[in-house]
Each structure stands twice: as C-alpha cells, then as structure tokens.
Amino acid sequence: MAIKHLEEYRDAGISNRLMDNIRAAGKTGVRLMEVCGTHTVAIFRSGIRSLLPENISLLSGPGCPVCVTAQGEIDAFIETAKKEDVIITTFGDLLRVPGTSSSLQQARADGADIRIVYSAIDALELARQTTDKTIVFLGVGFETTAPTIAATIAMARQTGVGNFVVFSAHKLVPPALEALASAETVRVDGFLLPGHVSVIIGVNAYRSFFEKYQIPSVVAGFEPVDILQGVETLVAAIAGGSPALGNVYTRAVTDAGNIKAQKRLSEVFAPTDARWRGLGIIPGSGLQIAEAYQMFDAQVRYDIKIADAPEPKGCACGEILTGTKTPPECSLYKKVCTPMAPVGPCMVSSEGTCAAYYRYHV
Amino acid sequence: MTSDKILLDHGSGGRISHHLTADLLLPLFTNEFLSPLNDGAILDLNGDRFAFSTDTFVVDPIFFPGGDIGDLAVNGTVNDVAMCGAEPMYVSMGLILEEGFPMGNLKTILASMKKAVEQAGVLLVTGDTKVVPKGAADKIFINTSGIGAINPQVRVGSDQARAGDKIIINGSMADHGMAVMAQREGLRFDTAIKSDTAALNHLVRKILANPRAVHVLRDPTRGGVGTALNEIAMQSGAGIKLFESALPVKPEVAGICELLGFDPLYVANEGKLLAFVDSDAAEAVLAAMRNDPDGKDACIIGEVVADHPGKVYMETRIGGHRIVDMLSGEQLPRIC
User: Fold this and answer.
1) Mean pLDDT, all residues of chain B
2) Which of B7, B260, B320 minimises the CB distance to A47?
3) How does residue B36 score in pLDDT terms, banded at 50, 70 and 90?
4) Nearest CB to A339: which of B259, B321, B328?
5) Are residues A236 and A174 in the same domain?
6) Which option is the CATH number for B31-150: 3.30.1330.10, 3.10.129.10, 2.30.110.10, 3.90.1150.10?
7) With contacts defined as CB-CB under 8 Å, which chain B residues touch A67?
8) A15 touches chain B (CB under 8 A)
9) Where do the domains of chain B lie?
C-alpha cells in the first residue's frame, strides 16, 4: 500500500520554490478560502500556514461535512436512534457532534445501538445478518461519499434487503460556493476547490459558478506541493487581474469527473433545499432519496422531520464557516469549547476549523 | 458537554483519560508515590528503590497478527516497570473469564504468557482467576502487576527532560494499533502489519549502561508517541521539538493510516520506547540500542528545547511548524 510517488509531492525543495513564487507575487491583503476540511487539516499539518507571507490569509470554508450538519439534523438522528429495533450505523466523526441536548455518543452510552462503520456496504451487510432489526445508515457527506451510498441503496433494492434505510443529510459543494460568493459579509479573493469532491463532479461542475462571479478558483490535491501549487495559481491570477478556473490536481481530477458516479447519484438521489450550519438554507444544496427509492428513506419510514434548532449561544461556527471570523476570535474558543467538550461542530470533527486550530496552531 | 456516564473516550489514553485520572482518582488517593503519575510507582523499601506497576488488558480481538492478549499483558507490565528504570523481577496475573470461553483459547493465551515471561526473564509468582456469567465480560480480561529493583545510579522520570536532550525511539510507530485495527471487524485488509508487542527490559538495560545520561524512559502505548511526548513536556515543563522527516513509520502502516485518517503519532505501540538522553551520550546510546533486536531501527526523532515550555511542536518536512497536541479522545475514522 506504499504510495512512493507521493514523496515528490512532499518535497522540501519543490515546496520552497513554490513558496518563493508565492512571496514574489505578493499583493497586500489577499484572502483565500480553502473550501474543504481535508485541506484545512493538511495545511496545518504540513506547516504551510506558518510559512506563508503575512499578506496572504487562508480562510477555512464550510467544507467539513460534519461541521455543516445542522443541529436539527443531529437531533433527528438521535430521535431515530431511540426507535425500537433500530441499529444506527455511522461514520465515526459524527458521534461527538452535539445536538440540542445530546449527542450520538451520549445516546449510545444511554443504551441506543449505534455502531461505527467504514462504508455503507458494511451497514448493508449488517442488515443482511440482522434481519430482526432495521439498520439505519446516517448519510452525511458531500459528493465524495454520496455515490457509494447511492450504489449501496441500489444494491439493497436489487437484492431485496428490506431492513436497510438511509437517513440522507448529504450536501453539495457548488451551491455552497454560490451562497458564499453572493453573501455580502463574505470577502474571498480566491477559492481553493476540494480535491476529493472534484474527482467525482469534475471541474466543469464549477463552470457556471465561476462564470457568474469571476473569482479565481483552482482545484488542488492534499499534499504540500499540491496545495502550494494551488495557492501559487490563485495568487498569480489575483495579482495579474486575470481570474481563471484552474486545476492543479490533474492526476486525479478531470473536466468531466466520474460520469458513472454522477449517474448513480442522480438515479438514487434528488436535489433538495438543505440547511447548513452557519449558512442557513441554501437552495438545491442537499440530496434527498429519490421517489423511486423511497422505501430506503429513513425519514419516510419513521416519519421524522428535521426541526429548526437554534444554534448554541455564543458559538461562532457560522462566521467561522464563512471565513468572517477565525477561531481565536470566537469568545468560546479554548475557554468553554474544546475538543473534549465541543460546543459547535467546528470543534468536533477532526477536520473542523476550530479543532484544527486547537490541535495545530503554534 | 460533560457526561454523567463513562464514555469510551475516558479509556482512550488521551486528554479525557488524563482528566479522569487527575480530577477523579488523584484527589482521593493522593500520596508521594502516586502523584507523579509515572508508568509505575517508585517505592523506597529500607533504602532500596523498587518500581511497582499494574495494567489491565481488554484488547479486542484477543488474537491479532504478531501476538495475543496474553503476551501483551506480560510485556505491557514488564515494560511499565522497565520504564521506571527498574529491572523487572516478578509479575502477577489476574484472569477474568467469561462463562463459555473456549478452553483451547485459554490454553493458547497461557502458553504465550509463559513464553513472554521466559523471554522477559521474569517470574510469575502469584495470580487469581474469576469466572463471570456470559455477557458480564467480553471473553477474557487480564490484569498483570509487576515489581522490579532500580539501580541506585538510575534517575529517570517523566519530569526529568531537560533542554538539549535528544529523543530516541527504538523503531517504527503505530504497528500495534494498526495491526489490531486491521484485524477488527469491518476492516478486511490483507496486510502484513504485525503488532510490535515485545518486552523491552533487555533493551532498557543496554540504554541504562550509562545511567546518568538517561533522563526519561517512556513506552508510548495508548495515545501513541504524540500523547506520551505531551505528558513528558508538561511534567518536565520543557518544550519538545519533533522532526517530521525523522519519524519512522512503515510504508504499509502509513498507507492504512492515510486511508482511514489516523495519525500514526497517536496510534498505540506495544514494543516501543522513547528515551531522552544527554546530547553528548546520544550516539553511544543509539549504537548500543541498535545492537539489540528490539532496537535495531533506533533513531533520533527530536530534541528538548527551551522555547514552547510544556508543548510539543513539529518541524514539518517543508520547514513549517505546527503544534502536536495530546489526543483528545478516541481516534475516529474520518468521513471523507
């Protein structure tokens, strides 16, 4: 499983040369947003933040799926977990996210059957082996994970597994970019677009967004050299006044993306309006299970509605997710809100901006 | 959200476990031997110093590539005693068995305990067995305690790190944790990753050949190297600087960690130690370690510095800096 060629994307010499170019293209007060939580963490872990010149600020956007999951959605997950004869299956990150009065982790300690799985396929397998229970898979994530969940639902229908359902709280990246670009309080000079999401949706998926707003945007990978190439491209475009939609992650991302995965997505899911923590309702930014697959929709089966839950008092996750505040500017940060006792989701997920600041910020 | 119930996080070995120990246990039982919260207590018996340590093993699965709960239980306690700078001598064994546990499995586990005891050169001198009804325990739990004598010249402790010390590890990180992880239900990887479980007392004897040069010995088990170094930094009031490019991780272990979103710095080890050594003596200690089968891949991964007291930071491959924090709870697989 060794990935030898990755070494060159971690090379100190190449990184230093890119950093020189970034410094040379210097312009005062450039605000770049990395939209993806994996980028946020990679930027901290590689120490890029400590190396960038002061005129470039990196803002962390709403690209951690756990972080943007609305509090009302978490409450609905917990409500589902309390139903009789239900086993909840979920990716691990979601366990600690606080809802209004509890978390899935707390619900588990209180007796709910909640299990961590590594893929929706494992949840389907559990359903096959546990016919006296209904297995609910919590579908939280972006375009990256949604296709495998779509494929699993299709597989469940094909093989007639009736005790498997999905609670879909999936979200889509391009509508969130639009919401950010059109918000008056948000100022972003360039977007570092997510690598994994783009593998699925392709560069073309950002075309209409880019043409409308003309903000320099570039798809980048996750190694230090990838990220620095992305920053270099953005800084050059900003300095030259020539906005472009670019891709420096060509070893994984194409213009068209993964057509097969896109087909699966549009077959099993349908776009819907969705509430994002901190951003409110964004039209067409969520995925609900399409009518043809309704028997696999947990919300339909258990008649669960997602209520509007107020976000915790004093929590600045909303401003942080839109880049208008940094974590140290939140009054709760490190005082009452820590990874052990997170108030907002940005502190919970390992890819949340606050957790990344807490863990890695020198 | 503070919990009124015990969560799995309380046993992670990270910050939440640390709070449980410091806030709940220590105030009740505080005394001069317990308070340093070292791997074991250093006792003074008529002028001779002894190290005394206990540990409980609940690993699931009980058999994993490279070992089982039996040798783990012996090696874990032998190592905790050895990390106090002591020569482990005697161990005890307490077994908690679940009704219905296969006799064959018990025999296999006892056989590997016997082998581990022999390899470590210690004697199992007392023990106890309890059987609980089905469901009241998960298959088998093992508690071991150990005791050993400390050479009067040796003065190691987690509060003894001082600026200038070189930090040595005896080999690659994260092997045990990822071997167990890969074996666990749901992860059907076909890998060659093996637990590194081993008794380190013979290696420690070589390291302590120059006793005054060694300031800290620590086995980075639960919580991994990252958590152990944070505890040492805090207890010593010293800063620790790590070199990312020097951190040893086997490529196959790095691959699985990357796939699952685990940081090898926080993954458990069972046959690794960290030694903080005077910089003048570091090369000699390294050479001595490399002569031992459990130390052949020993290398320097960092140093103790005067800045950033109480904190661990890393110089990254590309020359940047970042903090290496203590693990906050169980490491959870990432979502994307």
Assistant:
1) 91
2) B320
3) confident
4) B328
5) yes
6) 3.30.1330.10
7) none
8) yes
9) 31-150, 166-323
Give yes or no: residues A277 and A329 share one domain: no
Tell whether A203 lies on the interface with B, counting CB pairs under 8 A. Answer: no
Please indicate whether, in this complex, the C-beta atoms of A362 and B323 are within 8 angstroms of each other: yes
* Contact assignment for B322 to A145 by CB distance below 8 Å: no
Domain span holding position A40: 7-316
Instruction: Label the pairing between strands B239-243 and B312-315.
Output: parallel
Structurally, chain A folds into a number of domains equal to 2
- Contact residues for A172 (Cβ-Cβ < 8 A; gap 6+): A142, A143, A271, A284, A285, A286, A287
Same domain assignment for residues A206 and A285 = yes
The complex's ipTM works out to: 0.76
Per residue in B215-229, pLDDT (tens digit) is 999 999 988 999 999
B1: chain A residues, CB-CB within 8 Å: 98, 102-103, 106, 341-342
Return the residue of B nearest to A9 by Cα: B318
For the segment B151-160, the average pLDDT, to the nearest whole number, is: 94
What is chain A's mean pLDDT, rounded? Answer: 92
- Output the six-digit token pair for A246: 């670019």
Strands across the sheet containing A190-193: A56-60, A30-34, A190-193, A217-219, A245-247
pLDDT of res. A74: 94
